[in-house]
Structures are given as structure tokens and as C-alpha cells.
Amino acid sequence: MPVDPLTSQPAPDNRLGPDLKEMEAQALSGALAASRRWLARPRLDETLTRWLPWLSLTLGFGLALIGVGIAIGGTTGLLVGLLSVLTLPVFGGQLVVATAVSESRPPPACPACQAPDSPFQPYDHWVDWTEHAPDLFLAQAPLVFMGLPFGARCTVIRYGRDLLVHSPIELTRVLREELAELGEVRWILAPNLLHHLYVAQWAEAWPEAELWAAPKLAERRPDIAWTGTLEHGDQAPWPCETVVVRGHPLHVEVVLFDTRSGTLVLTDLLENLGHGPETSPLLRLILGLLGMAGRATPPTDWKWTLSDPEAARSGIQTLLDWPVERVVLAHGRLIDVDARQTLRRAFAFLDPEDQRA
């Protein structure tokens, strides 16, 4: 099977491969469904309040065009007034997104979730291997995804001299040399359908390492000689707890929990972006309107497009049952403070009782 270059090679903006283009259509469909659920039981909350200035601006601009048209009069005035019709789809689109974001129930902001002296801030800068917990090391790199500066983080867990690599980032000479001092890479895990761009680099550097893929990833990357696919957590060959969180048609994620340090290792199930000062005001504004700024939360489009909420709830419950002391994320600030409660608040939208509130 041929592999599209967008899938197998890191593009400048790491845009999606052709087989994931359907995510955009699914997000739109999911937003419309969430908006309809909101309309069934409308409410005004902080999330919707953020949208009120933009809704008012669009509506006001449309009314202003009508007023100008009346003032001008004649054919020209009629044409100017008719331009106000163009504001209706913009207003409608804003209203759909605003109500859909409100329906996704963003968790509270967590400005102090990361230790103030953490070396991993800002989260879109290079950081070489740093021991974040006993025998658990992190490195991070700049990463632009769909035009946005997300940054990316790789986790290595050490067992004796054996190293488990979760979500490989770009492999530099420095990272490779430092890793050689920590031990020998035995397992390389690509934990979901998006975090695979640099697996081939690591496989070339450590040809004896086992390459493990998240469900469906081997079909995306038939160019890689995978050791196996982790359909279930109990298949994992490494010592740490492993669970496969399902429920989404595309975002199936392999999650690790290091019981020795109480560290939960996630990829895209949780992001913690939009904090100042490391995020630009414009990006904070966009993330804020999407219910994601300055808080640890699943991506809003992930919430909209769950195909099996019960399966997602079951997988997340396993995470919530673990004695989590810290959470490592691929994108955004780490969660070093109040980790279990932050995790529970992030996934409270899955609770049927919460949904009926």
C-alpha cells in the first residue's frame, strides 16, 4: 500500500494526512449536534458569555449596514442594505460554535497546575532529557500543527537498563547521546494516529527495539515494520500499567501509568494550552472561545465527535481509579499540582449525572 507523503514525512506544519481529512467534517457535524443539545436545555454560562461580544459585533454590523442603506436611499442604499444578509451565516456559525462549546462543559481553569520552577515552560521550546520523576524522563520540542504552535513532548520510562519511549519527537544528536547514557531503548510506542511522525528516525537509530502501534496506526504506516499493535492494554510487553482508551472513531489512545512514581502519561486525550505569557494573545483568544485556554481539557472537537461515549467513559474510569500524582501531557503545561482532581474535572462531561445537571 502506498503511503502519502503527508502521512509518512513530517511536513512543515504537520498537517493531517489524507485519511484523517474526515476529521473536519466530523467536527462540523459534532458541533451541530452539540448545539442542538444545548438548544434543548439552553443556559448562559461563562463559556457562552465569552462569545457575546462577537455575536453582538456581527449582529450590530448587520444592523449598521441596514441603517446606512436607509440613509443613502435609492438603488445604492438598497444594495448596501442587502449586504447585511451576508452577516446572517456568520452570526449563525458563531452561535452554533458558541452553544456547542458551552455544551462541551469546559473544566475550570488551572493556572497553577504546573510547578512554578518547571523547566518545561514554555512548552513549545526545546528541552533535553530531564528527570521529571524517578526513572521517568521528558524531552520536548517545538511543533507546529495546523498552523498553531503546540509543542510536543516525549516520555521515557526506565526499567533497569531497558527504556520505554512514548510518543517519539524529532531525534536530535543531543537527545540520542543523552538517551544512550540512560539505558538501551527496548520499546518504542506510537500512542495514537497522529503521534507517529518520527518513529522511523528512532527505529533507524535503535533497529533492535520493538515498535508498537496504537490501533489502526499500522494501516496508516505500512512503511514501518511494527512489532505489533496494542489492541488491549494487557498485551503490553513493558512493566507499567497500560490501557487503550476508545470511544472515538479516529482518536484511540494508548495511555501509560507508572505506578512507581504515580505518573500518568497522556498524548492528546488531555491538552493544557493557552496559558500566558508563553501563548500569544491571539491564540489565547481563539483557545478561549473554544473552551480550551488555560485549562487541562480534552480537545473540544474530541468531545463533539465521540462515537461511543460509554467506551470512552470506561477507559477514562480506569485512569481515574489509578492513584495519579502527576500527569504528563504531549501538548501544553504539565499537571504537577492537584493531579487527580484536575483529571476528574477534565472528564466530568462524560458523567451522565453531570450531563443531566
Structural write-up:
α2 crosses α5 and α3 packs antiparallel against α5. A hairpin with a 4-residue loop joins β11 and β12. With 357 residues, the chain is of the alpha/beta class. The N and C termini lie far apart (49 Å). A seven-stranded mixed beta sheet has the order 1-2-5-6-7-8-9, with helices on one face. Strands 10-11-12-13 form a four-stranded mixed beta sheet, with helices on one face. Strands 3-4 form a two-stranded antiparallel ribbon. Helix content is 38%, strand content 17%. It is elongated. The protein folds into two domains: 61 residues; 230 residues, Ribonuclease Z/Hydroxyacylglutathione hydrolase-like (Metallo-beta-lactamase, Chain A).
Unreliable spans are 10-14
CA-atom Rg in angstroms: 23 Å
Let me know the average pLDDT.
90
Q: SSE string, helix = H, strand = E? A: HHHHHEEEEEEHEHEHEEEEHHHEHH
What is the CATH superfamily classification of the largest domain?
A: Ribonuclease Z/Hydroxyacylglutathione hydrolase-like
